[in-house]
Design brief:
three-stranded parallel beta sheet, 8 helices, Rossmann fold
């Protein structure tokens, strides 16, 4: 029971795939995001903001996305984090597993900040969870 309560309280990094589903109105994702907002658990990464902004369809949407992402605390990105992402990618490739560098970066970022990840990317979940010990929503 204590483990469930702990999992319910940890901050969560919301992956780009989830934000896209949220903005498209996926009812399950919308409900989960609203729950995270109510419990102040959402965290964001600069990379995810950049990915969202690059997909904006017009200036108004770009402005709205940028403003909405400002509502969430950004995770600390310590020096050397990209080096660690590269090392993770290397270790995975040595095992015959290919995970994009951006996903490796997010896995390292989540681990260093002690947060879980909410992603819809099943490959990412399958690979990062055993390798990094990251909790997935």
């Amino acid at each position: 029971m204590a483990e469930i309560r702990k999992a319910e309280l940890i901050p969560v990094l919301i992956d780009t795939s989830v934000w896209i589903s949220f903005f498209r109105g996926d009812p399950q994702v919308v409900g989960q995001i609203k729950s995270f907002i109510q419990t102040d658990r959402i965290r964001i990464a600069s990379l995810i903001i950049a990915e969202l902004l690059q997909g904006a369809r017009n200036d108004a949407e770009l402005r709205d996305l940028a403003e909405s992402m400002e509502a969430f605390p950004r995770l600390s990105e310590p020096p050397g984090i990209w080096d660690e992402a590269g090392k993770l990618s290397y270790r995975l490739r040595r095992k015959g597993i290919t995970l994009g560098l951006a996903d490796c970066y997010l896995a390292v970022l989540a681990k260093l900040n002690g947060v879980g990840i909410y992603t819809l990317d099943l490959v990412f979940k399958k690979i990062a969870e055993p390798e990094m010990g990251i909790e997935f929503v």
